[in-house]
Structures are given as C-alpha cells and as structure tokens.
Amino acid sequence: MVRLLHIEFIKLWNNRASKILITSYFLLLTSIALIAAIKFDIGPVQFHLADQGIFNFPYIWHFNTFVTAIFKLFLAIVIVSMMANEYSNKTIKQNLIDGLSKKEFILSKFLTVVSFSLISTVFVFVVSMVLGLIYSDYNEFSIIFSDLEFLLAFFIKLVGFFSFCLFLGIFVKRSAFALGFLVLWVIFEQMIFGLLGWKVMSWPNAKLIKDFFPLESMMNLIKEPFTRLSAVQNIGEQIGENMRFDYNVYWYEFLIVIFWTALFIYLSYALLKKRDL
Amino acid sequence: METILTVNNLTKKFGFLTAVKDLSFTIEKGNVYGILGPNGSGKSTTLGIILNVVNRTSGDFSWFEGNTSTHDALKKVGAIIERPNFYPYMTAIQNLKLVCKIKEVPETKIEEKLQLVGLWERKDSKFRTYSLGMKQRLAIASALLNDPEILILDEPTNGLDPQGIHQIRQIIKKIAGQGTTILLASHLLDEVEKVCSHVVILRKGEKLYSGPVDGMLASHGFFELRTADMEKLQALLEKNASFGKISRENGTLTAFLKEEMNAEELNKMLFDKGMVLSHLVKRKESLEEQFLTLTKNN
Q: Fewer Cβ in 10 A, N or C end of chain B?
C-alpha cells in the first residue's frame, strides 16, 4: 500500500502543474481563516463577520466543512488529469507492462484520493479548531466535540466526489473533456430533477429521488449552513418565513455516497480491465 | 531446457477482424527470437496479449511454466512496445526510479543501465527534451533495470536515423551476448537475421513457421556461376539431377540445389568436363528471400 502511494506521489509531485494546484488547494483551505477578518464599517452599521457566531462551536464544524468543500474543484482538476494523462502519455500501458496489475493501478489512484480527502479533513479540523478556540463564544469540551459528524461527512463527500472524477478520467481519457463532462453531469442531474418534478411526479417526490443522484447525494451530505445563523434566523422570523430546516447528517445519506463511491471505483476497474490499451 | 513463455492457440478478434489466429509457440531460455511479419500481421497484438495490455479472445499463455501470475511474471520481464512511454515532465532518473518502484527492484542499477545505453550524462534532463533515439535508449535502460529473464522489443529501431538504428543494434547485440533471452518483433529482416537464432513468422495473424532461422526453408542453397560459354554451362547443369531451377541474369547463372553439394565438388565436375569458371559462389537464401518465398506461397 505504501509502495502504491509512493508510486502515485512520484508521478504527482514531479508535475509542476499538479504541485501548484495541490499547494494552492491547501493554502485555500487555510485561508478560510481570513473570513474572520471580514469587517464592514459603514457609519452606524458595524459588521464583523467573526462576531456573528459563524465560528461558534459546534456550528463552525458545519460552516467550515461546507465552505471549504467548494475548493475541492482544485483537486478535482488534479485527479482528473492524473488519470487522463496516464492515457495521453500512454504511461498506463508502460506501467502495466512493467508489472503493475490493473487492480494495483486502480488501487494506487484510489488510495491517493483517500489520502487527499483525509489530509483535507485533518486540515479543516485543525483550522476550525484554532479559529473556534479564538472566536467561539462556547468553549466547553462537550460543545467543542459535538457535531463532529460533519467532518466525517466532509471526508466521505470528498472521497465520493474524487472517485467520480477518477472514473471520468478513465472513462473520457482526456482531462479537458472529462472536466467538461463533470459540468455537464451537474446540469444533467438538475435537468432530470426538473423533468421529474414538472411532468412525472410531485416536487417533494422528485426531491426525494434527487437525493439519490451521485453529485446531489454528495452535496446533500452537508446542507447549507447559512440559514442556521442566528442573524439569518432572526430575519426569517421577522418576515414570517420558517427557516428552521433539517441540517443533520443521516446514516442513509452516508450509505448512498458510499454506494456511488464503490460503484465508480468498480466501474473504473471494469473499464480498465475490458479495454485494450 | 527452461521454458520462459508458452503460448497456446491464442486468438484475438477486433470485431470482424481476426488479428491473431490460433497462434502457438514457446520461448526457451537463452535463445534470441524474432517475430517476423508484414505490418498488421499481429505481431504487436500478440506481444500486447502476453504483456497484459490487450485482452485475448480465446486461448491462453503462461509465463515461467505457469508458476506466477502474469503481473508478477512481468516484473521479471523487460519490454518495450512500439514507442517509449514515460512521464514527459520527469527526468530520466525520476522515470527510472518510478519503474524501480513498480518492478520492486532496488534503485542501485539505474546508473549502470544508463551508462550502458549512453544516457548517464543526460540523466537529469526531462524526458520531453530527448530525441527519439534517446527516448528509445532510455526505454531499453528501463526494460533492463530488473536484469530481466527475457527482453521483449517491439520494432525497437522504428523511426530512428541510421546512427540511432546502429546504436540500438549494438546494444541488443551486447545484451544478447550476455545470454539474455530476447524476443524481437520486427519487419526489418536484416535486423532479425543479424541477431536472432529462432524465428516465428506471422501473416494475417497466422503462424507460417516457427523454429531455427536455418530450418525455415528446406533449401540447400544455390550457386552463382560465371564462365566464358554460358549456354554450354546452362545446358550441362540442366541435365544434372542435383539442380532445380536455373536462371540467368546479368551474365550470371543462378542454379538452385535440390540436394546437398559443395562448391569443390561442382568445380571439379565442371573442370573435368572442360569448363573453367570465372566466378563461383555458394550461398544460402537470405532471410528476406526465404521470408518472401514463405509469405508468397501461402
């Protein structure tokens, strides 16, 4: 396993573009701390974002995992191209001839994906912990370590999303087209959802089905945290809108994403096995 | 003798096209094999199958008497297929280190092999800056990293300039001289003739011949003769039962033997009959001639 990871590391780290993207990604993860610096000072309206409770434990787990997940697009590019480049350089052929089995090849890519997700999770944990300890209004031990399922959700979400990217890289074989396909897929999921709700069934049912789509299910793991802010809640109450949504992470939502992850990895393997190189 | 590779009734179909048809042969340790065939005769497909990158339709093959899985066996094999494939953004050294990791061999051999192919001075240059000849030599170095039991080369001199071709041939000869088994696929016959002891000849995916180079045609060679009275010579030889086809071209008479006869014998016989030769050469058909005969008749 270490050998497979090392192989992937040599391939990635010697590539300048990947190196820059990976470094920027982790810098961006850290940069979420900069939100703390957002301050508006317009005459009577004084607004300091850090004072709005976004860094309160345990809300910070929810907020940071949601926001930082947006940066995963950087790594998506790295992952898609690390897969597609093996095809365009034909190095995948050489790897197999040199004695890497097809299973090992997929496993080495998957392990890389898991490592990326794990390191991201640890990063987000540390950054959030530091920010929380500085700004949070509540610092009791039990509060700090509640709602940690958001971190697990973050991890599973990344693994799922990157596995999808991996599959696209193998399936499409060209990194630019694979990324295009990814965007297309996002639109496709929304279109299916729209069609279902509009013509086939009621909107709540369509919503239910939508949660089973690969990208939607990953999105759905961590729901948007903004309406949970007390400031936003207050506004909601004033205009008479009920904004008390369900923000929890449920076990079956994990299961859906894990199912897709397994499927994508299996499909990648099946595709590699079936294809003549 | 130790068997390195056994191929049994291997068939590969691409849709309607049958690229390899019912192919069987074995590779014994210590010999240098050539796979010959015109373009599109299934050479690369055959190599692709035994190297685990092309799926077979039917039949089977086994490495090292079937004692290991294919991908483990490949760690004891060195192979270059068509074009050298490396990571363009990595240097020679970095690429070879990666191969060492994949083959699970120590990195100590890198310098030795780069010296062997004459690339040690350029070890820190990125692969994409290499010329085609250098890329091909790096591929050979990479294939040798594990001191393979067998070296498989698919068209190793394709697209190279005369110097590059010469360099690669020298390297192949050097390796063959060390007793490494080599499997060389090529359509360049003089290349195969110079280094191979055994050949497998393919045409349209079918095996026409496999065995030692000499035994390819049941032929006893031919004489090239010149004398003052060519008409008389031809008449004389046509009466002799030892000779088959006789032809005259550019003032030289070519007489093919039907049975064994050496040059002294013929010379003496003709002299006794009062004919003095100005030119007498006994030759075997070149591999090219044999190959063309073989592929034409079928």
A: N
Task: Please give the order of strands across the beta sheet that includes B58-63.
Answer: B17-28, B3-14, B58-63
Tens-digit pLDDT profile for residues B31-44: 889 888 888 888 88
Q: How many CB pairs lie under 8 A apart between chains A and B? A: 81
At A131-172, the pLDDT tens digits run 888 888 887 888 888 888 899 999 999 999 999 999 999 999
Number of domains forming the structure of chain B? 2
**Length in residues, chain A:** 277
Q: CA of A122, closest CA in chain B: separation in Å?
A: 28
- Yes or no, beta carbons of B51 and A97 under 8 Å apart: yes
The residue of chain A with its CA nearest to that of B91 is: A14
* CA B145/CA B111 separation, integer angstroms: 10
A98 and B75 within 8 Å at the Cβ level: the answer is yes
The contacts of residue A48 (CB under 8 Å, 6+ apart) are A38, A39, A40
Q: Which residues contact A114 (CB under 8 A, 6 or more apart)?
A: A159
Q: Is the pTM of this model over 0.80?
A: yes
Shared-domain flag, residues B288 and B159:
no
Residue B217 in domain: no
How many angstroms away from the CA of B102 is the closest CA of chain A? Answer: 6
Question: How far is B103 from chain A, CA to nearest CA, in Å?
Answer: 6
| Domain, as residue range, for B230 | 222-297
Same domain (yes/no): B130, B249: no
Asked if residue B152 lies in contact with residue B140, where contact means CB atoms within 8 angstroms, the answer is: no
Q: Are the beta carbons of A108 and A96 closer than 8 angstroms?
A: no
Angle between helices A102-135 and A251-274 (to 10 degrees): 150
